[in-house]
Specification:
The complex is a heterodimer.
Chain A: H1 3-10, H2 26-29, H3 65-80, E1 85-86, H4 88-104, E2 111-114, H5 120-129, H6 135-138, E3 161-162, H7 169-183, E4 189-194, H8 201-212, E5 218-224, H9 233-236, H10 242-248, E6 252-257, H11 261-270, E7 278-283, E8 302-303, H12 306-323
Parallel strand pairs in A: 2-3, 2-4, 4-5, 5-7, 6-7
Antiparallel strand pairs in A: 1-8
Helix pairs in contact in A: 3-4, 3-5, 3-12, 4-5, 4-11, 7-8
Chain B: E1 38-42, H1 44-55, E2 59-63, H2 73-78, E3 83-85, H3 90-102, E4 106-112, H4 113-117, H5 121-129, E5 136-140, H6 157-162, E6 168-171, H7 175-185, E7 192-196, E8 200-202, E9 217-220, E10 226-230, H8 234-247, E11 252-256, E12 259-261, H9 265-273, E13 277-285, H10 290-300, E14 307-312, H11 323-329, H12 334-345, E15 363-364
The chains are: A alpha/beta, B alpha/beta.
């Protein structure tokens, strides 16, 4: 027997938390109450409705995920247009992923984390289309005095956790999955993270922990759009092989066309009863689904002057009619 | 004074009596010319770093995925072989910069102020500050100048950096100071943190203004009523407040404090001793920054004066599209400075109203 195998045979097995199905100490933890999310109400600077997807009693159903992705794009255009510029590229990049998530997750139960706060636009757009965000609130997106800031914050609605400071969301999602396991709950936690964030070391600290503890109720959607502020990610840092890295950390990794909503939804369904954490490496583009954008549009921060906004509105409206 | 003051890590001029003091108003006796709105310039820092790097081959430039935003696209074009894309990996960036400094390079490290100070705090402390390495950390988008929400607002960077031994901390006021800052800090014997406004930089001082690391600048020396200490973006507001207060019969000694640490204690005490009340103004939380530094110096010297600190008051700054909205909402306006002075003096009645100044495109006016 090779030396290191002999050594590992002599070592005790790694310490892991109880896997799902084993009874945690329920008596000790049932007394723990989750943080109550306070909505101060519109008159106090809050929102008229605050709905988080995981709030008990939340109901919605996405009938046609492909059409829903286009609705997200159109809504995002309408959110950015009054500002003249913003994080439209993040919505275009993630529209199918957000649509597949909302079509798959169990409302009122499963939890949602958005790690790159600039991506909240896609989730807010989806929530507005589903009536989870009031029209009067969504109109204030990114404006002075609005609780719906353009880069997500602790106060952002819809999501269970958002970080404006990049690279921290996977830790939050791992924490949620860990908490659920300790409480004996079997709901899922979904986290959207971005490829640029993989440059931050904390992502890999979280990935290592989740892999070690086989947090199988955790599913990550990695938006691999090869875009960061300074340009294409692969010109700044080589991330590939992304799939091999996650697998080396104990995850099941899936290469997916990130603009094929059915393909994303299929993997999300298939991984519902997994034995380890899963990551979907969704290959995307920050200008997908909007042909009217100029070829040199900065995917991180797209300029949308009135004429371009009108063209985008017309293009997406026609697309919706085609899909109807 | 019982305070133990570290020897500044750069040359200082000493008066014949050995104390580091200068006569108020002799060198900086004129109020900067012009009224708001001020003209602005683009990329004064980026241009000055390129000029400096032509002379100093040991300068290397790090970016944390914010190259254009930190004006160092100019450096990248001029000296690609000395330009390092660290990517979005601030902890690693600081650790690498420290080792380059150990090998004789002078790294200038660039990202937004939040990411430069919060994310790699332990790396700055252990890899850079403890070994006292010549790493220059440039944090852009100070305080509430950013529309990016609390995650992108460096409201505590001065406090974090000021608490670290060996670090020199600057908050420069205008384009004239910004142009000089790289040359001013390049030879400091230890790490330096500089916070810099992003985008259009106002020109407030005249061309003859000299940024010195050992001197705060007394801009209006005649004030017997209020000593007003301002840093960074709050200088423009403090100037406007000074004019409004003087028009209302309140004399003001306005002091520009570009170096928060080590503080020019001699100047602060000299001005404070001649005033009835003190006001500080900073684009930062009022704990740990300029207001705290002035309060500590004055208290340790046994000077009893009412003090009001203008800045964020134990709060994050939420709900932003524009900087001016936040400056008003969180009490960082010219009117806030006027009200603070009025209150510190115990004057009755209504304080004077700040004159409003509209800025066109390419101009800057304080809120």
């Amino acid at each position: 027997m090779p030396v290191d195998e002999a050594a590992s045979a002599a070592r005790p097995p790694p310490t892991r938390l109880a896997a799902d199905g084993q009874q945690p100490r329920r008596d000790a933890i049932d007394c723990l109450q989750p943080l109550t999310r306070q909505n101060p109400g519109r008159e106090n600077g809050g929102m008229s409705v605050t709905t988080h997807v995981s709030d008990p009693g939340t109901h919605f159903k996405v009938e046609d995920p492909a059409r829903f992705a286009t609705l997200i794009r159109l809504r995002a255009v309408r959110m950015v247009a009054p500002l003249g510029f913003g994080y439209l590229g993040q919505a275009l990049s993630s529209a199918e992923q957000v649509a597949a998530l909302f079509a798959t997750l169990t409302p009122g139960e499963d939890r949602l984390v958005c790690s790159p706060g600039h991506y909240v636009i896609g989730f807010f757009a989806a929530a507005a289309e589903l009536g989870l965000l009031a029209e009067e609130d969504i109109k204030t997106y990114g404006q002075d005095g609005s609780p719906i800031e353009a880069i997500g914050t602790e106060r952002s609605p819809v999501l269970d956790y958002v970080c404006g400071s990049l690279g921290q969301g996977l830790s939050a999602a791992v924490g949620f999955a860990l908490s659920d396991r300790m409480k004996g709950k079997t709901r899922r936690t979904f986290a959207l993270i971005s490829d640029g964030e993989l440059e931050e070391g904390q992502v890999w600290e979280a990935a290592m922990f989740a892999g070690h503890h086989r947090l199988n109720r955790l599913t990550v959607l990695l938006d691999a759009n090869n875009s960061q502020v300074d340009g294409p990610v692969d010109e700044i840092t080589t991330l590939e092989p992304i799939k091999g890295k996650w697998e080396a950390f104990g995850w099941a990794a899936h290469e997916v066309d990130g603009h094929d909503v059915a393909a994303i939804a299929e993997v999300l369904e298939r991984t519902a009863n997994a034995e380890q954490p899963h990551v979907l490496i969704n290959r995307t583009s920050t200008v997908h689904g909007l042909r009217c954008l100029p070829a040199d549009a900065d995917g991180h921060f797209i300029k949308l002057p009135p004429a371009l906004a009108a063209a985008a509105e017309a293009e997406l409206t026609a697309e919706l009619e085609r899909l109807a | 004074m019982t305070e133990t003051v570290r020897t500044p890590p750069y040359p200082t001029e000493s008066a014949p009596d050995g104390k580091n003091r200068h006569r108020i108003g002799r060198e900086f006796g004129t109020l900067p010319g012009g009224h708001p709105p001020y003209p602005t310039v683009l990329k004064p820092y980026g241009q000055s770093l390129v000029e400096l790097a032509k002379q100093r081959e040991e300068i290397v430039c790090f970016t944390g995925d914010l190259t254009r935003q930190c004006e160092i696209d100019l450096f990248q074009d001029a000296f690609p072989e000395r330009f390092i894309h660290a990517g979005m990996a601030e902890a690693n960036m600081m650790g690498m910069a420290a080792s380059l400094a150990r090998d004789g390079f002078i790294p200038f490290v660039h990202t937004f102020g939040v990411f430069a100070t919060r994310r790699p705090l332990d790396q700055i402390i252990n890899a850079i500050a403890f070994p006292n390495l010549k790493v220059r950390i440039l944090g852009f988008m100070p305080g509430v100048s950013s529309p990016g929400g609390p995650s992108h607002q460096a409201i505590d960077d001065v406090a974090l950096m000021r608490a670290i031994p060996n670090l020199t901390v600057l908050d420069v006021a205008d384009a004239v100071e910004v142009r000089q800052v790289a040359a001013a800090i390049v030879d400091v014997d230890g790490p330096v943190y500089v916070r810099l406004k992003r985008g259009e930089i106002p020109v407030i001082f005249g061309d003859d203004h000299v940024l010195r690391l050992d001197r705060a600048n007394v801009l209006t020396p005649e004030g017997g009523d209020v000593a007003l200490f301002a840093s960074g973006m709050m200088l423009a507001s403090a100037l406007a407040a000074t004019r409004a207060l003087e028009d209302a019969g309140v004399s003001v000694s306005l002091v520009n404090v570009p170096v928060i640490k080590p503080l020019d204690t001699a100047t602060v005490l000299e001005v404070a001793a001649q005033a009835k009340a003190l006001v500080t103004a900073e684009n930062h939380v009022i704990t740990g920054g300029l207001g705290s530094a002035v309060a500590e110096a004055v208290a340790e010297a046994g000077l009893g004066r009412p003090l009001r600190r203008v800045g964020l008051r134990d709060t994050f700054a939420e709900g932003s599209r524009t900087g001016p909205y936040l400056f008003t909402k969180y009490g960082l306006s010219t009117q806030s400075v006027i009200d603070a002075a009025w209150n510190a003096l115990g004057r009755g009645g209504k304080p004077p109203t700040a004159a409003s100044a509209q800025a066109d495109d390419g101009e800057y006016a304080p809120v």
